[in-house]
Amino acid sequence: MASLVGATLFEVMAIWGVLFVSFIGLGYAIMLRHQILSYDKGTPVMIEIWNSIKEGADAYLKRQLKTILPLIIVFTFVLFFSVYIIPPSDEALHRFAGIDPNMISFIVGIGRAAAFVMGAIFSLMVGQFGMRMAVEGNVRVASASRRSFSEALKIAYRTGTITGMLTDGLGLLGGTAIFIIFGIASPDVLLGFGFGGTLLALFMRVGGGIYTKAADVGADLVGKVEHDIPEDDPRNAAVIADLVGDNVGDCAGMAADIFESYEVTIVSGLILGLALVAITGELKWIIFPLIVRAIGVLSSIIGTYLVKGQDDEKNRDALVSINRGFFASAAISVFAFMLVAFFYMHEWRAFLSVAVGIALAIAIDEVTKYFTHTKHSPVKGIAHSAKTGSATLILRGMSIGLESSAWQFMIIAVTILLSIVIYWGQPVVFVLYGVAMTGIGMLTLTGNNVAMDSFGPIADNANGIGEMAHMDEKARKIMTELDAVGNTTKAITKGIAIGSAVIAAVSLFGSFITDVTKVQAQMGVPEAMRLLATGIRVSDPIVFIGLLIGGAIPCLFSALIINAVARAASLIVDEVRRQFRIPGLMEGKVKPDYKKAVDICTVAAQKELIGLALIAVVSPIFIGMVLQVEALGGFLAGVILSGQLLAVFMATAGGAWDNAKKTIEDGLHGGKGSDCHKASVVGDTVGDPLKDTAGPALNPMIKVINLVSLLAAPIIIHYHRTDVGVIISIIASGLLIFGAIWYSKHGVLSLRRPETDYSK
């Protein structure tokens, strides 16, 4: 293995073993798929409803692929030619010693472009295949609920596990394969892999989020509030679009989101690990993260298979069963990490870093659960506020969202502090490596986390199918219980996704500093003036400007995406209102045209995502060229800080409003149809675009900005802003940003259709 010169026999075998484990994870996903598809799909009525959901999901996925494919092609060429702007790195020269430097640039360029395509395809596969399996699973969960709670729970959770194991297996496969081929030069290529996955996650998060919440808000406002009919009433023209939206937002979007966090943490871990190899001469710093990931795959397989429910009504609790599997995986992982630390690393610092990451995941899990679960006082308090109207309910939810942000920030701050304590007295690169290992540890249980998230929309869809098919009361009760637990698991995994995004971003921030320092060393910049020595000086007014603009970007991004949901939802409201005027529809004599609502959501989502993605990609390039590389570091710090606060606030407040509504629908404070219920529906409607669109979309946005900065920083250092090419690039990127903002504010208005009076 030429790429691992100096590696011991154990290290070579370990790398190949990690690659083999990635295939085990994928094989487990295939096995579960066969299991799920062997279950029946229920009655003809259930299958008819399921077919409508399936057709809507397929239509969305096909249109999304057509939208993003041209951009993938453009970025592939950009990444290939980006390596020619600057000389090859020292690591690339060492890895391909004896080859002409121009040929080395060509090899790295091909590798980076191919890795970008691979990352994009893997992210797309995780989202699309996972979503298609969720659609296959929902009707089977509904059918199984007629027989037993345990069978319905098993199908729902194992269907979600398929997506989790795809995330694990493909993420580990891509990173390990690149490392085997490029060795110490792999960071140059891994940046392309991470960027491909992150960019696709941004597309799927933004597009899926706009789709799902436009349908949900439109359906609720007209159906529940104006016509006082149930949530999944078949007379509502947006009900199928709403069920499709659960899949494109919470399955495809979340899976791609966690997948790119999984990629990004391994990218930053290997970049910082190679910096430590240069200091210590030991390869263990780059082998250890890969072994940790392989252990995570195996422990997730065991933990997810242990999730089984009981049919005894007094003892059946889906969340208890799911948590049992999660904690089993965590315990297995920690024990295995100890063995690796003792027998291979011969030190405990790396082990403590990954253990802290697992503890961070559990802590965020518990905090999110406290603020969003129906059994705890925050949600109960919001439900109680409904007695005095929607205004007080919304205010109470905002308060809880803000408080949750504060506590999660404290937890993350303590986590980073622990990384500093673990590597106390060591150079700053060790501390940054510790933070990266914390991120890798946090995402060790990715298989479990994605399974928990996908469980939510699968159970939600099953419940919707049950209501539309008028299934018996016993089956409906089982599905309602699973749906309620699914809301909590979705909220928990959103919290973990946001936390992992911040840790990944901090790791990338460390990689940014070390990469810039390497390039400065190549250029002959004195050591005392390199970025690793000076740090990001916020006291410098130019750097502070970068910090301020970075803090503003998540606010702008959130404003535009919420506005996009509002515009798309207004189109759904118009369509549902028009169809309610069709003679015989309210009496159940005429079926609504579900396809029109699906088409509106699909087109609106795809039109909106381009402008938002351009803002994330182009803004760091613009800031770097105008304010230079240190200010770009300040810009990244501002994005991370502001993005985390907003993301946690929106996700928690939205989840709490949603579950407060569900507690009222279960009979609290007057139940369905009461004034309290109507107030809670308004709160839930406000929270929907926050928790399922804007908040989660900030995760990939933060990482896209960090990865673009990593790719652009070496180029920015080599050129001065007074160069003609740089001036042209500044003008072009500035125009792109303002054009994207204008497009995001006005681009979808053309979708509005002329009023049609169906009563004539």
Automatic annotation (TrEMBL):
Location, primary (coarse class): membrane
UniProt key word Translocase: yes
Top class in the EC scheme: translocase
Needed cofactors: Mg(2+)
Keywords, sorted A to Z: Cell membrane, Hydrogen ion transport, Ion transport, Magnesium, Membrane, Translocase, Transmembrane, Transmembrane helix, Transport
Catalytic reaction annotation: diphosphate + H2O + H(+)(in) = 2 phosphate + 2 H(+)(out)
InterPro entries, per database record: PPase-energised_H-pump
Positions of the record's site feature: Determinant of potassium independence: 490
Membrane topology classification: Multi-pass membrane protein
EC id: 7.1.3.1
Subcellular location, record wording: Cell membrane; Endomembrane system
The UniProt record lists the keyword Lyase: no
Molecular function GO terms recorded: diphosphate hydrolysis-driven proton transmembrane transporter activity; inorganic diphosphate phosphatase activity; magnesium ion binding
Single GO cellular component term: endomembrane system
Purpose of the protein: Proton pump that utilizes the energy of pyrophosphate hydrolysis as the driving force for proton movement across the membrane. Generates a proton motive force.
Family under the similarity heading: Belongs to the H(+)-translocating pyrophosphatase (TC 3.A.10) family. K(+)-insensitive subfamily.
Subunit relationships: Homodimer.
The protein's name: K(+)-insensitive pyrophosphate-energized proton pump
Gene source species: candidate division WOR-1 bacterium RIFOXYC12_FULL_54_18
